[in-house]
Amino acid sequence: MKLIVFIAFALFVTTFAKKLDEKYMWKELDFAWPSEEVKQAAIKSGRYIESHNLPLGLEVWKDKMFITVPRWKGGVASSLNYFKINDERSPVLIPYPSWEANQLPESEQTTQASYGGGRTDAKEAEKADNLLAKNNETIISTFRIRADDCDRLWVMDSGLADILGSPKQWAPNSIAVFDLNTDKLIRRFVIPEDQVKEDSFFANIIIDTQASDCSNAFAYLPDLGSYAVVVYDFKNDKSYRVKHNFFHFDPLQGDLTVGGVNFQWTDGVFGMALGTPTNEHGDRTVYFHALASTKEFSVPNTVLKNETFATSGDSYYAYTLLGDRGTKSQATAEFYDEKTDVIFYTQINRDAIGCWNIKKPYTPENQGLVDSDSHTLVFPNDLKVDDKGNLYVLSDRMPLFIYKNLEPGYNYRILTGKTEEVIVGTPCENAVQ
């Protein structure tokens, strides 16, 4: 009898619990080079070193899958790229918006500059600014990107290259906005120097807008290094820096072990997700968490969009502690899915993807586990949900890339699944009515 019950349970799990499918995988990233001669010349000169190209962020727009490749080390061929969604397992990356826009000048020593903290050499800063003046579409190094409801791609460009080697600030931190229908740059906004601190690090960008009013858009830029959020007002073409205690990391949650590598991080506010608008004005909840933390917080977007209120101490109590995910649940990215009312998030300490239904209390018991795999989900770095309810997860074993060495074989993957299917059997499936 016990055996029959066990078999029935196993069949139930097999039938209803659907894991993520491996859609794409790479041993090394390759690119759609102008020619084989150009590729070989780049290899010979060290401008392309295969093992230094690590995918980190992804975004989906229509039939395009965008992939970012930050310039952690020298030899990154292109930082902003895409490929057409298809059945090819290891597609080559196409630089966006062009090859030229993703190329650093030949002489690295003549154009580096320092912005935001530390010493700024005026002549070198001018040369770096000239890099953008020559081609304002230039993308130096980007981590995460976001496409909005108005068919625009928002790119947070750190302007920083060779981060793990000899860091070079080629250009100031800036936001580049592209029209995805024409692949043309709409605007480049440089974050003012007084909003960039010595330890600032912008590795994410969230866009708050509606297709009914594309000019009324706001970008939220979590500053994980100096614990703040820079808010960019698109209509007025200005930004301001917002501070709050909830943007800081938890000193008890900075110890991480991924892929057998132990390390300690102090990353503050990082993941952010936008709830669904509740009225015609686009009012909604902004969910957020620090990377070195297991707690989740929220704040109304009306707070962040009001510069006077957001930058004053009066806004302190507008922020809410939602709860704690539980032990070893540190997360990088999160994303809200309107179809299921579920926020999906990475679990880097567990090689997993978690979920939470926003209609339930934020407790460990209400956190679901969509998938966990110590082979395919080692450091799930970014995730997105498209308008068809497809969840995409990029895993890249980044701690091994930074602190050790990646092993031969497939290290980079994009996994996918239908949001309505992957939450079956988890606490995220049924919401409180």
Structure in a nutshell:
The protein is mainly beta and 433 residues long.
Question: How does this structure look, described?
Answer:
This protein has 433 residues and is mainly beta. It has a domain of 160 residues: 6 Propeller (Neuraminidase), CATH 2.120.10. The chain is built from seven helices and 28 strands. The N terminus is likely disordered. This is Protein yellow. Its main location: secreted. It comes from Chironomus riparius. It is found in: Secreted.
What is the second-level CATH architecture of the domain at 31-190? Answer: 6 Propeller
Global shape: globular
What kind of assembly state do the chains in view correspond to?
single chain
The description of the largest β-sheet is: 4 strands, antiparallel
Question: Can you give the helix content as a percent range?
Answer: 10-25%
Organism: Chironomus riparius
Family: Belongs to the major royal jelly protein family.
Subcellular location: Secreted
Protein name: Protein yellow
List keywords for this structure.
mainly beta, 4-stranded antiparallel β-sheet, Neuraminidase, 7 helices
What is the strand and helix layout of this fold?
Blueprint: H1 2-16, E1 21-26, H2 36-45, E2 58-61, E3 64-68, E4 80-84, E5 94-95, H3 122-134, E6 142-147, E7 152-157, E8 160-161, E9 168-169, E10 174-179, E11 184-190, E12 206-210, E13 213-223, E14 228-233, E15 238-243, E16 255-258, E17 261-264, E18 269-274, E19 285-290, E20 295-300, H4 301-304, H5 307-310, E21 320-324, E22 334-337, E23 342-347, E24 352-357, E25 367-372, E26 380-385, E27 390-395, H6 398-403, E28 412-418, H7 419-422
Antiparallel strand pairs: 1-28, 2-3, 3-4, 4-5, 6-7, 7-10, 8-9, 10-11, 12-13, 13-14, 14-15, 16-17, 18-19, 19-20, 20-21, 22-23, 23-24, 24-25, 26-27, 27-28
Family: Belongs to the major royal jelly protein family.
Protein name: Protein yellow
Organism: Chironomus riparius
